[in-house]
Design goal:
8-stranded mixed sheet, 13 helices, binds magnesium ion, alpha/beta, Rossmann fold, binds adenosine-5'-triphosphate, about 40% helix, about 270 residues
């Protein structure tokens, strides 16, 4: 059985695609067979972050419409043999994806022995986001530590609890909080909400806290998921999140401001 994980948020631009790419890569690095799917019809982005945009011939909508087979459309990652990308269509037709079409693709991935399918949701709470979450077993809710992001995530939690296949069957999608663009310094000064604040408002358990980091943009410019950036805080934080998804215990890092050294304490810095 393939475990279907939606990466969702409500609010746009919070880090869903960044997170989808890194979680997919991290799970593949643990030896699992993984597919990561871009549900953002009209706005292709995941293939850029994964560094395979030049190899996209067929996309998700082509498969749904029967214009290509799933095998033709899946792009094998250059770094991991067991990691595949299904790109979004550039079509302007927002209704190109249907629930039946999505189900067909997910069923075929499960039959092909995929362990995990990561669904990168578009922003908002409309059809695309609904289709991305409908078949999910688990949801990673990506939140920035600010009020507007938390509020939009709360609306997504409402949909996860009512508009999914699990909800229709009287079950629950397993929900995780992933806080990203976290700056412990700005939390300390009261400009940002803390991990504890967000957990309390949303009633979720945290699977990861990703620090604000310039490495994210550098990595995406190179077409490399940031989890592969050696020595990067963001990479280590994503690696911890993947381990927790796999049921391991990892202490939370990057949640307190860096301690200043002796000299900078005395001389300022
Ligand atoms: N931890 C981080 N530190 C710094 N910048 C980040 C971090 N995470 C994401 N970003 C930046 O935030 C922007 C949005 O990221 P991303 O595209 O992953 O968001 P998204 O939620 O998928 O957006 P959309 O809703 O448009 O699909 C990008 O410019 C990315 O580089
Ligand atoms: Mg995105």
């Amino acid at each position: 059985m393939a475990e279907i994980i939606v990466v969702t948020s409500g609010k746009g631009g919070v880090g869903k695609t960044t997170t989808s790419a890194s979680l997919a890569c991290g799970l593949a690095r643990h030896g699992h067979k993984v597919a990561v799917i871009d549900f953002d019809v009209g706005l292709r982005n995941l293939d850029l972050i994964m560094g395979c945009e030049r190899r996209v011939v067929y996309d998700f909508v082509n498969v749904v419409n029967g214009e290509a087979s799933l095998k033709q459309a899946l792009i094998k990652d250059k770094r991991f043999d067991n990691l595949y990308v299904l790109a979004a269509s550039q079509t302007r037709d927002k209704d190109a994806l249907t629930r039946e079409g999505v189900q067909k693709v997910l069923d075929e991935l499960a039959a092909d022995g995929f362990d995990y399918v990561i669904c990168d949701s578009p922003a908002g709470i409309e059809k695309g986001a609904y289709l991305a979450m409908y078949f999910a077993d688990q949801a990673v809710v990506v939140v920035n530590p600010e009020v507007s992001s938390v509020r939009d995530s709360d609306r997504i939690l409402g949909l996860l609890a009512s508009k999914t296949r699990k909800a229709e069957q009287g079950e629950r999608v397993k929900e995780h909080l992933l806080l990203t663009r976290y700056s412990p310094k700005r939390v300390e000064t009261g400009e940002m909400l803390s991990v504890g604040d967000v957990e309390e408002i949303l009633g979720l358990k945290t699977i990861g806290v990703i620090p604000e980091s310039p490495d994210v943009l550098n990595a995406s410019n190179k077409g490399e998921p940031v989890i592969l950036e050696v020595g990067s805080d963001a990479a280590q934080a994503y690696d911890d999140a993947v381990a927790r998804l796999l049921g391991q215990n990892r202490p939370m890092r990057f949640v307190t401001p860096e301690k200043k050294g002796f000299f900078s304490k005395i001389f300022g810095g």
